[in-house]
Amino acid sequence: MDELDRTARALDAEHAATDLRARFELPPDVVYLDGNSLGPLARGVGDAVARVVEQEWGRGLVGSWNDAGWWEAPLRVGDRIGRLVGAAPGQVAVGDSTSVRLYQSLHAAAALRPGRRTVLADPSSFPTDLYVLASVARQVGWQIALLSPDDVPARLSGSDDVAAVVLSHVDYRTGRLWDLPGVTAAAHAAGAVTVWDLCHSAGAVPVDLDEHGVDLAVGCTYKYLNGGPGAPAFGYVAHRHQDAFANVLAGWTGHADPFAMSGTYVPAPGVARARVGTPPILSLAALDAALVVLDDVDVRAVRRRSSSLTAFLRACLEALVPGTRFASPADDDRRGSQVSVRHDEAWGIVRALAARGVVGDHRPGIARLGVGAPYLTHADMLTAARTFEAVLAGGEHRAAEHRVRPTVT
Ligand SMILES: Cc1ncc(COP(=O)(O)O)c(C=O)c1O
Ligand SMILES: Nc1c(O)cccc1C(=O)C[C@H](N)C(=O)O
């Protein structure tokens, strides 16, 4: 046992109270560092989904819309997510994809600030955010100004042309955690609204939406909320904007009285008006059960564990793989829950790591190691770094079998 082993042990002992690995069904021989793409299966999810399928659907049939609470599920599950992102009940609706929620939120932002023609966004945003923004901008007549989130407050200062600022809280590639409170305050001082994409922070980093006065937010649930592949996204609409929230996708489930079957759209009161079509009940059941395992968890405790894990992973890589070029900040307060390493052969490295049971993922030029704090340990971080070292030392990342690129990376 060397010094790094001893440190890993000591840190794991110090953080023992937040080790929730027993709540997840992870294979024993895998260090799973891709929970920022697809969170693992939480215990109880399979049984919960089976119960909904067999009992509620199989026996309850159509009556389950009333008897099993299916109709209310998008807002009930929304409140569960709300607790994790600092939103009081009644402000989060679940359903559809992040792309759809973003489309809705951007249109709603434009309607909240008519006459203003500029929207600020980060050119490094996840592609869907840029594509959706471009599409909405064409429809509402916005000019898009692309700039680093660091430069947003200065751009806003003294301006009166900005309708909205749309940013990711954590950068999907680098893991950079942006200043949500500061940018939100600067946007408000300039009369603009904020639309935050929480895909890489919800469940991993305290967001405190209400406390910071965020206007609108969206996020996916299949990463740190562990909702499962294709789990529905969520949209947050602050209480104060709900009456004016114009749903561009004015579907019938967001109607004030859907079963009146009126030919005229009347929006439901509250965040229910953000609903669109029929909720995906089986996916919601999986998400709901996955969130149960976080019900007694304080996201600040998750964050403390995550910061310790990612700091230790960085330290191990620095010690074992000298010259590692980190894309993720060294400063704990600026780093989300991942450690990204820049490397020209990142693709081969990620494939070779996976062949040895350390599962991360690749984004162009970057090996991305996502840290789902509840189910990972400092010992796992050390294993990952040692495996990284071994892959490079043996040139395994250059092996022919690691050059094949599957459809989904
Ligand atoms: C920041 C960010 N926004 C959006 C998405 C995707 O959105 P959707 O749920 O529409 O696939 C992702 C990941 O897939 C993401 O990382
Ligand atoms: N949503 C995904 C999917 O449907 C397939 C594969 C990966 C994803 C992802 O979540 C990608 C992820 N947002 C990212 O940060 O790269």
Automatic annotation (TrEMBL):
The keyword Hydrolase applies. It is an enzyme of class 3 (hydrolase). Its EC number is 3.7.1.3. GO terms for molecular function: kynureninase activity; pyridoxal phosphate binding. Pathway: Cofactor biosynthesis; NAD(+) biosynthesis; quinolinate from L-kynurenine: step 2/3; Amino-acid degradation; L-kynurenine degradation; L-alanine and anthranilate from L-kynurenine: step 1/1. One of its GO terms (cellular component) is cytoplasm. One of its GO terms (biological process) is NAD+ biosynthetic process. Pfam families: KYNU_C (PF22580). Coiled coil: none annotated. Catalyzes the cleavage of L-kynurenine (L-Kyn) and L-3-hydroxykynurenine (L-3OHKyn) into anthranilic acid (AA) and 3-hydroxyanthranilic acid (3-OHAA), respectively. Belongs to the kynureninase family. This is Kynureninase.
